[in-house]
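Protocol step 4 of 6.
Sequence for Peptidoglycan DD-metalloendopeptidase family protein (Halobacillus kuroshimensis) entered exactly as in the expression construct, tag removed. Do not edit the line below.
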Amino acid sequence: MWKKVVITVLGIAVLGVGTVYAEQSMQTVYHVQMDGREIGTVTEKAVVQDELEALVKQKEEQHEDWNLTVAEDITFKPERVFSVEADEGQVLERLEQDVSYAVEAVQVQVNGQSIAYLPEAGDVEEVMETLKAEYVNDEGGSEEEDVSAGETELENVYVNGVIDYAPVQAAPSSINTVEETVDRIQTGNLSEQVSLSSGEPLVDVIVTEQEREAEMIAHKVEVRNTDALYEGETEIHQEGQDGKRETLIQTVTENGETTEEEVLEEEVVEDPVTQVVLKGTKPSPSTGSGNFVWPAVGGVITSKQGERWGRYHKGIDIAGVSDLTIKAADHGKVTEAGYQESFGNKVVIDHGNGYETLYAHLSSIDVQVGDTVQQGEKIGDMGTTGHSTGVHLHFEVHKDGGLENPLSHVSQ
Ligand SMILES: [Zn+2]
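Step 5 output, structure tokens:
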């Protein structure tokens, strides 16, 4: 009894298997057609669809902003068959070889003429912005109403021409970049290879900008004569100062070329201050007073007049100063000013009253032969030119051709 039941059950099972086998032996295959042309047979549509998706994805990876589709029409024709003779491998190979792509793009038109294909509508916006930016000088600093000095502010920019776009499917090779599109609009050359056009821009970019320029106003110099000063002497009575003028200029440019320029405002923001110079008219005495002043700024006497190292030292040596200025001991006229071997740079002043003074070893000389100098006026800087062992002034006093002891005339 038990056994029988088991056999029955088995029998049903066997029957069932037989039925399934019969169903499967009658199968559906799909004839894959590319633009109506058969390229093979598959048992599942998904195999083809997955392959197409993979191919598109692979292609898209090379162009991040592209949205691609397969250009060909891929269709399936089902057929019920007993014996399956699918050739999936061949179908996939054909797809990979023969499929071409279309980009979901926008066609850019300028004044109704197609000039480029861009991947996205957003790129057209970028073309417009780039086109405008090419001709705008405003650095976009301040958003204030007023243009401050040295700044340029954009007042208006408009494109004289209609740029629009429409969605299309385009071949990948016809897709342009934003830069190419801008270039085509600017130059009027619609092909990179041949330039047949006159090079006229397809649209005009008209920019209105305001710039406030700051300009210096040079100060004047006024010279006033005064007998409070000796001839040749000057004194600044009032320091001069440059002024400042600001000008607001409005410029209109068309494709970068200035077509209009207008001064909107002009204002002196700082008046210049005239420099007033006093000029001495009092005749300068070239005759000495007979009284001498110390010819240096401080310092010490390092050598007096007299026998030294078997030779006669004709003057005194002054050294140890922090200010190197050498002064004329009295009014007079410069009779020598130049280099002489042992004295180095030397100045001799004739005081017009029989006295002459001599200054030697100067590092630089500020006077020339023939100059009238005043008592205490700077004639040069202390130095160590000529036969000298250190920075010092060698100072001699002569009267009527004979040597005087300087220390009888000057003291610190
Ligand atoms: Zn000396």
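Step 6, annotate. The chain has four domains: 27-99, 106-140+147-205, 211-282, 300-408.
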